[in-house]
Amino acid sequence: MLNGLNIEGTTPLHRMSVRAKLAILLICGLGLYAVSSLYVLIPAFIIAALIYFTTGLSFREGVSRLKPILFTILILLIATAYLTSTRAAAESFFRLMAIVLFAGAVTATTATGAFIDEITRLLQPLDRLGLVRAADVGLAFGLVLRFVPDIFNHYQSIREAHRARGLKVRPLTILAPLIILTLKDADTIAMAIDARGFRRPRERLR
Amino acid sequence: MTTRDLVLIALFTAIIVVLGLIPPVTLGFIPVPITAQSMGVMLAGCIIGARRGALAYVLLVLLVAIGLPVLAGGRGGLAIIQGPTGGFVLGWIVATFVTGLIAERLVKEGQSEVRQFAGFFIASVVGGIGVLYVIGLPWVTAVMGTPLTEVAKGSLVFIPGDIVKAVIATLAARAVLAGYPLLHARA
Question: Which of A41, A83, B57, B96 is the most exposed, having the fewest neighbouring CB atoms within 10 Å of its CB?
Protein backbone atom coordinates (compact mmCIF):
# COMPACT_ATOMS: atom_id res chain seq x y z
CA MET A 1 0.00 0.00 0.00
CA LEU A 2 2.81 2.38 0.83
CA ASN A 3 5.72 1.49 -1.39
CA GLY A 4 8.47 4.07 -1.48
CA LEU A 5 9.10 6.03 -4.66
CA ASN A 6 12.71 4.90 -4.90
CA ILE A 7 14.04 2.72 -7.72
CA GLU A 8 16.80 0.16 -7.13
CA GLY A 9 19.98 0.85 -9.06
CA THR A 10 23.72 1.47 -9.01
CA THR A 11 24.07 4.90 -10.63
CA PRO A 12 26.48 7.40 -9.00
CA LEU A 13 23.49 9.09 -7.39
CA HIS A 14 22.41 5.79 -5.84
CA ARG A 15 25.85 5.31 -4.32
CA MET A 16 26.22 8.85 -2.99
CA SER A 17 25.51 9.36 0.73
CA VAL A 18 22.06 10.66 1.66
CA ARG A 19 23.56 13.65 3.44
CA ALA A 20 25.60 14.66 0.37
CA LYS A 21 22.55 14.40 -1.88
CA LEU A 22 20.41 16.51 0.43
CA ALA A 23 23.22 19.09 0.78
CA ILE A 24 23.61 19.34 -3.02
CA LEU A 25 19.84 19.67 -3.43
CA LEU A 26 19.74 22.47 -0.85
CA ILE A 27 22.70 24.33 -2.37
CA CYS A 28 21.33 23.99 -5.93
CA GLY A 29 17.90 25.11 -4.76
CA LEU A 30 19.23 28.24 -3.08
CA GLY A 31 21.86 28.87 -5.77
CA LEU A 32 19.38 28.84 -8.63
CA TYR A 33 17.29 31.51 -6.93
CA ALA A 34 20.35 33.78 -6.98
CA VAL A 35 20.66 33.67 -10.78
CA SER A 36 18.12 34.95 -13.27
CA SER A 37 20.01 34.38 -16.51
CA LEU A 38 18.39 31.96 -18.95
CA TYR A 39 21.92 30.97 -20.09
CA VAL A 40 22.40 29.31 -16.68
CA LEU A 41 18.83 28.22 -15.98
CA ILE A 42 18.18 26.35 -19.24
CA PRO A 43 21.40 24.24 -19.00
CA ALA A 44 20.57 23.58 -15.33
CA PHE A 45 17.13 22.39 -16.41
CA ILE A 46 18.60 20.11 -19.12
CA ILE A 47 21.17 18.62 -16.72
CA ALA A 48 18.48 18.00 -14.07
CA ALA A 49 16.24 16.34 -16.68
CA LEU A 50 19.12 14.11 -17.82
CA ILE A 51 19.85 13.10 -14.21
CA TYR A 52 16.16 12.48 -13.50
CA PHE A 53 15.59 10.24 -16.52
CA THR A 54 18.81 8.23 -16.03
CA THR A 55 17.98 7.14 -12.46
CA GLY A 56 16.42 3.94 -13.76
CA LEU A 57 12.95 5.42 -13.78
CA SER A 58 11.03 4.38 -16.91
CA PHE A 59 10.10 7.38 -19.08
CA ARG A 60 6.40 6.81 -18.55
CA GLU A 61 6.67 6.49 -14.77
CA GLY A 62 8.93 9.55 -14.67
CA VAL A 63 6.44 11.68 -16.55
CA SER A 64 3.41 10.44 -14.59
CA ARG A 65 5.14 11.35 -11.31
CA LEU A 66 5.67 14.89 -12.53
CA LYS A 67 2.13 15.36 -13.82
CA PRO A 68 0.37 16.79 -10.74
CA ILE A 69 3.16 19.26 -10.00
CA LEU A 70 3.58 20.17 -13.66
CA PHE A 71 -0.09 21.08 -13.83
CA THR A 72 0.23 23.60 -10.99
CA ILE A 73 3.42 25.03 -12.45
CA LEU A 74 1.83 25.49 -15.90
CA ILE A 75 -1.20 27.34 -14.50
CA LEU A 76 1.05 29.66 -12.54
CA LEU A 77 3.33 30.04 -15.55
CA ILE A 78 0.47 31.29 -17.72
CA ALA A 79 -0.69 33.68 -14.99
CA THR A 80 2.83 35.01 -14.44
CA ALA A 81 3.51 35.47 -18.16
CA TYR A 82 0.26 37.36 -18.51
CA LEU A 83 0.75 39.56 -15.42
CA THR A 84 4.50 40.26 -15.55
CA SER A 85 6.68 39.41 -18.53
CA THR A 86 7.23 36.31 -20.63
CA ARG A 87 10.92 36.41 -19.74
CA ALA A 88 10.28 36.45 -15.99
CA ALA A 89 7.85 33.56 -16.42
CA ALA A 90 10.38 31.56 -18.46
CA GLU A 91 13.04 32.15 -15.80
CA SER A 92 10.78 30.88 -12.97
CA PHE A 93 9.71 27.93 -15.09
CA PHE A 94 13.21 26.63 -15.89
CA ARG A 95 14.48 27.32 -12.37
CA LEU A 96 11.58 25.53 -10.74
CA MET A 97 11.65 22.60 -13.18
CA ALA A 98 15.40 22.14 -12.60
CA ILE A 99 14.87 21.99 -8.82
CA VAL A 100 11.79 19.75 -9.05
CA LEU A 101 13.55 17.30 -11.41
CA PHE A 102 16.63 17.12 -9.22
CA ALA A 103 14.49 16.64 -6.11
CA GLY A 104 12.66 13.86 -7.98
CA ALA A 105 16.01 12.26 -8.81
CA VAL A 106 17.06 12.31 -5.13
CA THR A 107 13.73 10.73 -4.16
CA ALA A 108 14.09 8.05 -6.84
CA THR A 109 17.60 7.06 -5.80
CA THR A 110 17.30 6.99 -2.01
CA ALA A 111 15.76 4.08 -0.10
CA THR A 112 13.27 4.86 2.66
CA GLY A 113 15.42 3.14 5.27
CA ALA A 114 18.48 5.20 4.32
CA PHE A 115 16.48 8.40 4.76
CA ILE A 116 15.23 7.33 8.22
CA ASP A 117 18.79 6.43 9.31
CA GLU A 118 20.02 9.82 8.11
CA ILE A 119 17.24 11.71 9.94
CA THR A 120 18.06 9.79 13.14
CA ARG A 121 21.75 10.68 12.71
CA LEU A 122 21.00 14.36 12.05
CA LEU A 123 18.95 14.44 15.26
CA GLN A 124 21.77 13.04 17.42
CA PRO A 125 23.06 16.48 18.56
CA LEU A 126 19.54 17.40 19.73
CA ASP A 127 19.26 14.00 21.41
CA ARG A 128 22.42 14.71 23.41
CA LEU A 129 20.91 18.01 24.53
CA GLY A 130 17.89 16.07 25.74
CA LEU A 131 15.45 17.91 23.44
CA VAL A 132 14.25 14.93 21.43
CA ARG A 133 14.88 11.24 21.38
CA ALA A 134 16.35 10.45 17.99
CA ALA A 135 15.26 6.82 18.24
CA ASP A 136 11.63 7.92 18.58
CA VAL A 137 11.62 9.10 14.97
CA GLY A 138 12.31 5.61 13.67
CA LEU A 139 9.71 4.16 16.04
CA ALA A 140 7.11 6.70 14.89
CA PHE A 141 7.81 5.94 11.22
CA GLY A 142 7.39 2.25 11.93
CA LEU A 143 4.10 2.83 13.74
CA VAL A 144 2.66 4.86 10.84
CA LEU A 145 3.62 2.26 8.24
CA ARG A 146 2.33 -0.53 10.47
CA PHE A 147 -1.06 1.07 11.13
CA VAL A 148 -2.03 2.59 7.77
CA PRO A 149 -3.41 -0.75 6.44
CA ASP A 150 -5.28 -1.35 9.73
CA ILE A 151 -6.89 2.09 9.65
CA PHE A 152 -7.80 1.60 6.01
CA ASN A 153 -9.57 -1.62 7.06
CA HIS A 154 -11.43 0.36 9.76
CA TYR A 155 -12.52 2.76 7.02
CA GLN A 156 -13.74 -0.08 4.82
CA SER A 157 -15.75 -1.70 7.59
CA ILE A 158 -17.35 1.64 8.52
CA ARG A 159 -18.22 2.09 4.84
CA GLU A 160 -19.73 -1.39 4.70
CA ALA A 161 -21.74 -0.63 7.85
CA HIS A 162 -23.10 2.47 6.11
CA ARG A 163 -24.06 0.48 3.02
CA ALA A 164 -25.73 -2.26 5.07
CA ARG A 165 -27.97 0.38 6.63
CA GLY A 166 -28.63 2.15 3.32
CA LEU A 167 -26.78 5.31 4.42
CA LYS A 168 -24.78 7.49 2.07
CA VAL A 169 -21.02 7.31 2.66
CA ARG A 170 -20.04 10.85 3.61
CA PRO A 171 -16.92 12.28 5.26
CA LEU A 172 -19.05 13.73 8.03
CA THR A 173 -20.41 10.37 9.18
CA ILE A 174 -17.16 8.49 8.63
CA LEU A 175 -14.62 10.75 10.36
CA ALA A 176 -15.77 10.53 13.97
CA PRO A 177 -16.07 6.70 14.16
CA LEU A 178 -12.82 6.26 12.21
CA ILE A 179 -10.86 8.56 14.52
CA ILE A 180 -12.34 7.22 17.76
CA LEU A 181 -11.90 3.60 16.65
CA THR A 182 -8.23 4.26 15.83
CA LEU A 183 -7.16 6.44 18.75
CA LYS A 184 -8.88 4.14 21.26
CA ASP A 185 -6.08 1.62 20.62
CA ALA A 186 -3.38 4.11 21.65
CA ASP A 187 -3.23 2.95 25.27
CA THR A 188 -2.85 -0.72 24.38
CA ILE A 189 -0.18 0.03 21.78
CA ALA A 190 1.71 2.31 24.19
CA MET A 191 1.61 -0.39 26.87
CA ALA A 192 2.87 -2.99 24.40
CA ILE A 193 5.78 -0.73 23.42
CA ASP A 194 6.71 -0.04 27.04
CA ALA A 195 6.36 -3.70 28.00
CA ARG A 196 8.94 -4.59 25.35
CA GLY A 197 11.24 -1.81 26.51
CA PHE A 198 11.62 -0.21 23.05
CA ARG A 199 12.11 3.22 24.55
CA ARG A 200 15.00 2.94 26.96
CA PRO A 201 14.26 4.89 30.13
CA ARG A 202 16.65 7.80 30.47
CA GLU A 203 17.69 9.61 33.60
CA ARG A 204 16.29 13.08 33.72
CA LEU A 205 19.01 15.69 33.41
CA ARG A 206 17.29 17.98 35.81
CA MET B 1 6.75 12.99 25.83
CA THR B 2 5.14 9.78 27.03
CA THR B 3 4.88 6.67 24.90
CA ARG B 4 1.14 7.28 24.70
CA ASP B 5 1.71 10.74 23.19
CA LEU B 6 4.13 9.25 20.67
CA VAL B 7 1.57 6.59 19.72
CA LEU B 8 -1.23 9.17 19.41
CA ILE B 9 0.97 11.29 17.12
CA ALA B 10 1.89 8.34 14.90
CA LEU B 11 -1.73 7.08 14.77
CA PHE B 12 -2.99 10.51 13.77
CA THR B 13 -0.39 10.74 11.01
CA ALA B 14 -1.59 7.32 9.83
CA ILE B 15 -5.21 8.58 9.88
CA ILE B 16 -4.20 11.55 7.71
CA VAL B 17 -2.51 9.16 5.26
CA VAL B 18 -5.67 7.04 5.11
CA LEU B 19 -7.83 10.14 4.53
CA GLY B 20 -5.75 10.64 1.37
CA LEU B 21 -6.79 7.19 0.14
CA ILE B 22 -10.52 7.94 0.40
CA PRO B 23 -11.94 9.08 -2.95
CA PRO B 24 -12.66 12.86 -3.03
CA VAL B 25 -16.28 14.02 -3.00
CA THR B 26 -17.71 16.71 -5.25
CA LEU B 27 -20.34 19.05 -3.85
CA GLY B 28 -22.72 20.65 -6.33
CA PHE B 29 -22.06 24.28 -5.52
CA ILE B 30 -18.27 24.12 -5.16
CA PRO B 31 -15.98 23.93 -8.21
CA VAL B 32 -13.12 21.98 -6.54
CA PRO B 33 -13.61 18.41 -5.26
CA ILE B 34 -13.03 18.02 -1.52
CA THR B 35 -10.37 15.56 -0.42
CA ALA B 36 -10.83 14.28 3.10
CA GLN B 37 -7.09 14.68 3.66
CA SER B 38 -7.22 18.47 3.41
CA MET B 39 -9.30 18.49 6.60
CA GLY B 40 -6.39 16.90 8.45
CA VAL B 41 -4.94 20.17 9.76
CA MET B 42 -8.21 21.21 11.38
CA LEU B 43 -8.88 17.71 12.72
CA ALA B 44 -5.40 17.22 14.18
CA GLY B 45 -5.41 20.60 15.90
CA CYS B 46 -8.93 20.23 17.30
CA ILE B 47 -8.62 16.60 18.37
CA ILE B 48 -5.11 15.98 19.73
CA GLY B 49 -4.17 19.61 20.46
CA ALA B 50 -1.41 22.00 19.43
CA ARG B 51 1.78 20.15 20.31
CA ARG B 52 0.84 16.62 19.35
CA GLY B 53 -1.06 17.84 16.26
CA ALA B 54 1.93 19.81 14.99
CA LEU B 55 4.24 16.84 15.63
CA ALA B 56 1.84 14.58 13.69
CA TYR B 57 2.31 16.94 10.75
CA VAL B 58 6.09 17.09 11.23
CA LEU B 59 5.97 13.31 10.85
CA LEU B 60 3.76 13.55 7.76
CA VAL B 61 6.06 16.12 6.11
CA LEU B 62 9.04 13.84 6.85
CA LEU B 63 7.17 10.94 5.22
CA VAL B 64 6.58 13.14 2.15
CA ALA B 65 10.24 14.20 2.13
CA ILE B 66 11.57 10.64 2.21
CA GLY B 67 9.49 9.80 -0.82
CA LEU B 68 6.50 7.84 0.44
CA PRO B 69 3.32 8.47 -1.57
CA VAL B 70 1.31 9.59 1.47
CA LEU B 71 -0.53 12.59 0.01
CA ALA B 72 -3.90 12.39 -1.77
CA GLY B 73 -3.51 10.92 -5.26
CA GLY B 74 -0.36 9.01 -4.30
CA ARG B 75 1.87 12.08 -4.34
CA GLY B 76 5.07 12.41 -2.35
CA GLY B 77 8.77 13.10 -2.67
CA LEU B 78 11.03 16.08 -2.21
CA ALA B 79 9.69 17.71 -5.39
CA ILE B 80 6.37 18.42 -3.62
CA ILE B 81 8.13 20.40 -0.91
CA GLN B 82 10.35 22.29 -3.36
CA GLY B 83 7.50 23.03 -5.78
CA PRO B 84 5.13 26.01 -5.90
CA THR B 85 2.74 24.56 -3.32
CA GLY B 86 5.51 23.61 -0.88
CA GLY B 87 4.56 26.53 1.35
CA PHE B 88 1.25 24.86 2.08
CA VAL B 89 2.92 21.55 2.93
CA LEU B 90 5.31 23.20 5.41
CA GLY B 91 2.53 25.56 6.53
CA TRP B 92 0.46 22.58 7.70
CA ILE B 93 2.73 22.25 10.73
CA VAL B 94 2.26 25.86 11.89
CA ALA B 95 -1.42 25.88 10.93
CA THR B 96 -2.10 22.76 13.02
CA PHE B 97 -0.25 24.28 15.98
CA VAL B 98 -2.32 27.47 15.83
CA THR B 99 -5.57 25.52 15.36
CA GLY B 100 -4.73 23.42 18.40
CA LEU B 101 -3.73 26.41 20.50
CA ILE B 102 -7.04 28.17 19.84
CA ALA B 103 -9.09 25.00 20.34
CA GLU B 104 -7.35 24.26 23.66
CA ARG B 105 -8.13 27.79 24.92
CA LEU B 106 -11.71 28.09 23.66
CA VAL B 107 -13.14 24.61 24.12
CA LYS B 108 -13.60 23.14 27.57
CA GLU B 109 -15.31 19.95 28.60
CA GLY B 110 -18.64 20.62 30.28
CA GLN B 111 -19.33 23.70 28.18
CA SER B 112 -22.57 23.98 26.30
CA GLU B 113 -22.56 22.23 22.93
CA VAL B 114 -22.98 25.49 21.04
CA ARG B 115 -19.89 27.04 22.62
CA GLN B 116 -17.83 23.95 21.78
CA PHE B 117 -18.99 24.08 18.16
CA ALA B 118 -18.14 27.80 18.01
CA GLY B 119 -14.70 27.23 19.53
CA PHE B 120 -13.77 24.45 17.11
CA PHE B 121 -15.09 26.44 14.15
CA ILE B 122 -13.09 29.55 15.05
CA ALA B 123 -9.96 27.43 15.58
CA SER B 124 -10.44 25.66 12.23
CA VAL B 125 -11.02 28.87 10.28
CA VAL B 126 -8.19 30.90 11.85
CA GLY B 127 -5.61 28.09 11.93
CA GLY B 128 -6.65 25.79 9.09
CA ILE B 129 -7.53 28.53 6.59
CA GLY B 130 -6.03 31.87 7.74
CA VAL B 131 -2.58 30.76 8.89
CA LEU B 132 -2.25 28.26 6.06
CA TYR B 133 -2.88 30.85 3.35
CA VAL B 134 -0.65 33.43 5.06
CA ILE B 135 2.24 30.96 4.68
CA GLY B 136 1.24 29.28 1.42
CA LEU B 137 0.43 32.25 -0.80
CA PRO B 138 3.68 34.27 -0.37
CA TRP B 139 5.57 31.03 -1.07
CA VAL B 140 3.86 30.75 -4.47
CA THR B 141 4.87 34.35 -5.20
CA ALA B 142 8.45 33.76 -4.08
CA VAL B 143 8.81 30.61 -6.18
CA MET B 144 6.94 31.56 -9.35
CA GLY B 145 7.06 35.36 -9.34
CA THR B 146 3.27 35.58 -9.77
CA PRO B 147 2.11 38.82 -8.04
CA LEU B 148 0.73 38.15 -4.55
CA THR B 149 -2.60 39.93 -5.10
CA GLU B 150 -3.27 37.77 -8.15
CA VAL B 151 -2.38 34.56 -6.31
CA ALA B 152 -4.72 35.61 -3.50
CA LYS B 153 -7.52 36.40 -5.95
CA GLY B 154 -7.01 33.08 -7.74
CA SER B 155 -7.19 31.13 -4.50
CA LEU B 156 -10.61 32.62 -3.65
CA VAL B 157 -12.24 29.68 -5.48
CA PHE B 158 -10.99 27.41 -2.71
CA ILE B 159 -12.52 29.43 0.14
CA PRO B 160 -16.12 28.04 -0.04
CA GLY B 161 -14.70 24.50 0.04
CA ASP B 162 -12.48 25.44 2.98
CA ILE B 163 -15.48 26.74 4.93
CA VAL B 164 -17.34 23.47 4.28
CA LYS B 165 -14.28 21.57 5.53
CA ALA B 166 -14.17 23.73 8.66
CA VAL B 167 -17.82 22.86 9.35
CA ILE B 168 -17.22 19.12 8.85
CA ALA B 169 -14.05 19.23 10.98
CA THR B 170 -15.95 21.10 13.70
CA LEU B 171 -18.71 18.48 13.84
CA ALA B 172 -16.22 15.59 13.78
CA ALA B 173 -13.98 17.16 16.45
CA ARG B 174 -16.92 17.75 18.75
CA ALA B 175 -18.14 14.15 18.24
CA VAL B 176 -14.67 12.84 19.16
CA LEU B 177 -14.51 15.17 22.18
CA ALA B 178 -17.80 13.72 23.39
CA GLY B 179 -16.83 10.12 22.70
CA TYR B 180 -13.11 9.98 23.50
CA PRO B 181 -11.73 13.29 24.80
CA LEU B 182 -8.03 13.86 24.10
CA LEU B 183 -7.68 17.61 23.55
CA HIS B 184 -6.79 18.45 27.14
CA ALA B 185 -5.60 15.03 28.22
CA ARG B 186 -1.95 15.26 29.09
CA ALA B 187 -0.16 12.30 30.50
Answer: A83
